[in-house]
Amino acid sequence: MAFEVRGNGGIRAAWNGDAVGQAARRGAARGLALSAEHVRGIAVDLAPQDTGALRNSATASHDADDLRAAVSFDTPYAVRQHEELDYHHRTGGAKYLERALDTERDTVARLIQAQIRKALGT
Q1: Terminus of the chain with fewer CB atoms < 10 Å: N or C?
Q2: What burial class does residue 36 get, using C-beta atoms within 10 Å of its C-beta: 0-12 exposed, 13-18 middle, 19+ buried?
Q3: Separation of alpha carbons 116 and 27, rounded Å
């Protein structure tokens, strides 16, 4: 909302709700993209490492229109490595993606909030 003080002492208010909503949405989309990259980095550090193929297959993606983000690992064994709790690893371990999201939940929220605030100029 914008205010204008007139010479006669009156105040004129203009509602910019559509522009504000669009800016907030752009900020949220940017925050989601940054958050997905952040979670990807944490998940890579938590993932098992043998040859490095699993860690190197990690990808962060986002859809600004739907305000969705995803982190994925693209190897034939990524799901099995993630879910199998009985595997023993020298580095990393099971539930690497799940643990990354759980531990970084507050950081993800702060990243998105910061980008919305930045887009709104606050």
Answers
A1: C
A2: buried
A3: 4
